């Protein structure tokens, strides 16, 4: 009777065949989690920048502010998202502030994850930012008044 590894030929191949799908799925989950965090961070930054620019754009014209914010968001978004698709940007002026909402689908290839998301719709990714409208000239005048009072 032989002892040793002669009877175990191919066991590493079988074990690797059982473990590799788990390893590949774990790596894919980590990669798509990083894509989600990246896209969410980028959308938050884009929404904030667009709201800030929109609040400075119109000098009182609400439609011009909202259009400026929306156009800036669309321009900023170009070629910056990794897995987000069909992102819609809405901008409006309400209660003395510009509000920008970026809402889209987070695309996960369902062929890779069969059965889990095949019947369901894709997860949503959303960013919403609000920036108050400031009058820069009035702010500068107020600062100068305060400085003048402090000097006296």
UniProtKB/TrEMBL annotation:
The chain crosses the membrane at residues 16-37. InterPro entries: TadE-like_dom. Residues 10-51 form the TadE-like domain. The keyword Transmembrane applies. Keywords: Membrane, Transmembrane, Transmembrane helix. This is TadE-like protein. It comes from Anaerobium acetethylicum.
């Amino acid at each position: 009777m032989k002892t040793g590894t002669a009877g175990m030929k191919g066991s590493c191949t079988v074990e690797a065949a059982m473990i590799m799908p788990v390893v590949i799925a774990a790596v894919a989950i980590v990669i798509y989690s990083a894509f989600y965090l990246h896209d969410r961070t980028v959308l938050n930054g884009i929404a904030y920048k667009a709201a800030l620019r929109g609040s400075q754009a119109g000098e009182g014209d609400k439609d011009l502010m909202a259009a400026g914010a929306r156009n800036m968001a669309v321009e900023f978004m170009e070629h910056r998202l990794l897995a987000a698709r069909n992102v819609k940007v809405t901008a409006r002026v309400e209660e003395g502030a510009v509000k920008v909402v970026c809402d889209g689908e987070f695309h996960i290839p369902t062929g890779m994850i069969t059965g889990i998301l095949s019947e369901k719709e894709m997860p949503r990714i959303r960013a919403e930012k609000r920036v108050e409208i400031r009058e820069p000239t009035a702010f500068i005048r107020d600062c100068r008044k305060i400085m003048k009072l402090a000097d006296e």
